[in-house]
Fold each of these.
Amino acid sequence: MSTFKAPKGTYDLLPPDSAKFLAVREAIAAPLRNSGYGYIETPGFENVELFARGVGESTDIVTKEMYVFETKGGDRLALRPETTAPVLRAVLEANLHKAGNLPVKVWYSGSQYRYERPQKGRYRHFSQVGAEAIGAEDPALDAELIILADQAYRSLGLSNFRILLNSLGDKECRPVYRAALQDFLRGLDLDEDTLRRAEINPLRVLDDKRESVQKQLGDAPLLRDYLCDACKAYHEEVRELITAAGVSFEDDPKLVRGLDYYTRTTFEFVHDGLGSQSAVGGGGRYDGLSEMIGGPALPSVGWALGVDRTVLALEAEGIELELPSTTSVFAVPLSEEARRVLFAKVTELRRNGVAADFSFGVKGLKSAMKSANRSGARFAVIAGERDLAEGVVQLKDMESGEQVAIGVNEIVAELESKLG
Ligand code: ATP
Ligand code: MG
């Protein structure tokens, strides 16, 4: 062990387990790629102001969880705690929204950083795959994203998850609701911090996890009773489209996001095998965000799914992904000349697209065969002085244990045909 350890709240992805993370990212990305979403990548850090405005000054993310630093040049930057604001920043900066075909549909995959209290499923460095559809207001777009996330989870074999759905209204109806909620909250027995929050960001109080608070919220006014006709019709259409796609969901009238630029559709994916860190993904409409960061009005919708928690969900459901073995052929040379001959064969196989590996370092047959086993290779190719003198190598089927001699010049073609 070295003197150093991974920083608190972080962990390393190591083979072979890291393959699961790649597979999860791929499973989430595949339906997006297949639905008109293009890949976008933004820097791991941004001007801190982008998050202050684009995530919200009053959120936990901005007040407590950001890694903020000043560069030698005096810039105030933050490691990204989320990627929606950066994506919108990038789209606006490149004028993608002016190219004339809205919505701009993009997906991303990458690290997020939040200074949180580390627990199972809650880390300081974690990874998300996300999708954003920018510049269109259409219930079919909200429905598309929910359906694609559902498809991604199902393609991984997950079934013990639920979709919670709500509408947050818009700038017509939300202010009326906000005032009614505030009135209600002022009459409760709440601590000072919570009362202050009720003044700044009353919807967030509904999200308070403490039982002492939840107990008092039983009779709180609900947004759904305040939705204007346009919001009601919009939400009804989202629900109908999802239902028609065979995706089931639960209406959750208390599901909220506190900030004014979140509008209408909001949803969360929760997994029931994860204990208190049960949210595997979430998203919704953010029609006001573009204007918050200095852009034009661009109604948009998106989600972010947590890769780490999705892997935990797979474990909770006992799902073993069928990950194809990464190595098909493993070469074991038993002499100097065999090293040169087999190394050349491995190179040729690789150039022909066959996954091949080689026994490196000076090893005896026994320990080299152990490496071959560990590699998961379907075939081992073994050669020593005597084999080469006879112009052959030994081809061993690692499943049946059967071994046959094959001409040195035929081995590559033979392996290619055996591996289909
Ligand atoms: P939570 O309520 O659990 O804090 P959140 O509302 O902060 O979640 P989002 O910002 O919506 O989460 O991020 C989307 C997804 O990213 C979450 O559903 C979760 O799967 C994942 N995620 C968020 N924070 C963390 C974290 N600290 N560690 C691991 N995954 C996380
Ligand atoms: Mg959080």
Amino acid sequence: MASEEKKGKKARSASAPAQEIIEWGMSQDIGTCFDRADKMKPCPIGHSGACCKVCHMGPCRFVGKDADTMKGICGATLATISARNIVRMAAGGTACHGDHGRDMVFTLLAVANGETKDFQIKDVRKLYKIAGILDIEFEGRPVLDVAKDVGNKLLEDYGRQRGEMNFIRRAPKKTQERWKKWGIVPRGIDREVAETLDRTTMGMDADPDSILLHGLRNAVANGWGGSMISTEVTDILFGTPMPVKAEASLGIFTEDEVNIVVHGHEPSLAETMVDVVAEPELIEYAKSKGAKGINLGGMCCTANEVLMRHGIPTAGGFTNQEPAIMTGLIDAFTVDIQCIMPAIVDVAKKFHTKVITTAEKVKIPGAMHIQFDEHHAKDIARQIVKIAIDNYPNRTKKGSHVTEKFPVVAGFSHEYIEYMQGGRWRGSFRPLNDAIMAGRIRGVVGLAGCDSPRFPSTGVHKFLATELIKRDVLIVSTGCSSAACGGAGYLTPEMALEQAGPGLREVCEAIGIPPILHLGACVDNTRILTIASAMAEEGGLSDEIGGMPAVGIAPEWITEKAVSIGMYFAVSGVPVIFGGESPVEASKEVTRIMTEVWFERFKGALHFEPDPEKILALALDYIDKARAALKLRKYEPGKFAAEKVLMDMAARREIEKAAKPHLGIY
Ligand code: NFS
Ligand code: SF4
């Protein structure tokens, strides 16, 4: 071990506050995922997709120079088992996002059926928009009746055995035709997940192309199913996001307030916490224990949900969860579902922090469990806040308290992006398309996915974010990538002035937006799908999602959800590049199918590329080739074609003044 590492100085995170806390932790012998990542080297056979363990004759390991020609005990080839492995990962991801969406629908139905008073329909316009897409009559009907029909219709997407999922119709016609041609329009979310597991067990589908095609069907069931349902129903219940100012970093916690973290993915409990921490009785109770007030902070995608809608500060993404507790300032660390490291309980034991699990399907030995129930949401949230307040006087051990934090602007929904390009009455995607056609904006990158302890975490996000905007690429970001960009100070409009290329800067200044638009949680990647569909419909670029000068990048991905997301973007027509080593590295055949064959069929692909410089080059190459294929002006920095002047804020306000008071943003 190098002496720097011994002293705990090895770069773990590209975020200075996180690095400071992690170093302090190492000096105190408090281990984190970073230390465990050093010790736990991945098995190279499984890591590269060359191990099959779907039956107990194995695991069969395809190693050595004849790996390409060897067979498992059942006769399966390396390509077969490698394809099976990756689509099984994608099935896990679709199940996660699907279940999350299902829970949101149950909450919507609880509201519609009058079973809870703790939630309402906050965005009726969005409800009507979705009702319209689902062919549900809404005019003149009671809102809750419409909500009930919407909820029940979306629930059908889970159990449908034959036919097509509802939101497939939102994709451009040409994109849908490609799915139909290859027989991969999903029927129901649960059915596609179950069939993935069925097809990939011993003695089932042995054709790698066929296995991977079903993997794509399973992925469509996520992107145009579970995740999209989650985004839309969450907007209906809690409001469609509009830009908000907030703060990011591990420096958001305060010494003189009760600090409560909401971590996970589902917004229901977190939304309720936002309400109850403002209740005067609870604030008084906090004061009675010596605190000045109550400070709520988010983590991972639950953070993104309440950041987008309420400006609740975010403490960051996946790798920040243990360091957050190491500040010594967290009185209650509340978790719901997904991406929760069981290790938080071990770190919490070294401080006074109470870890509280709240989901029936996520329990952690050593944590306190308080079951969330949407029928009694506020009572449960109050109970948790009281526990945190009671725990405030127990802070004894000093942690590593950092104070540096960064301003962020978040809250860019599909609807707001449309609105910002012309106001409520003239909103469209025309200005964005025009800016791309004119070469002001070279292309669009969706920067998404996790942050990983296997890199200096968040570092590749930061590198790509700055290098891309410098080259006039507009970034839309989600999930922990947004947390990484926020924690680096990149989510402000000023960033455009400082770092963006001349064309992108001009567009950002005219509209008043940052060059990196925070679109929300990982389920909100579906906002990118609907934005891309709207751009296709607007005209002037590609008439389908495929062929757009757009690329998806998940440079530090770690989860099965990320694999499912990567696949649904690929099959929707977006070339996707994942960082890190490839989980199908062992099979050239599977790698070829996922890049070349998928590109021929769907105009999308899923690459794995560990070198950040090469990720950047590959993304720009895809963008420039798409521009050339669309016969758009060749991108040259600082040189653009004349185009219609973008509507600025002042012009938009003029239109707004003339209009009726607006009920929503679309
Ligand atoms: Ni997405 Fe959000 Fe983060 Fe990765 Fe996990 S929190 S759902 S999976 S680690 S980006
Ligand atoms: Fe080996 Fe075939 Fe069993 Fe896989 S399914 S473990 S390749 S025998």
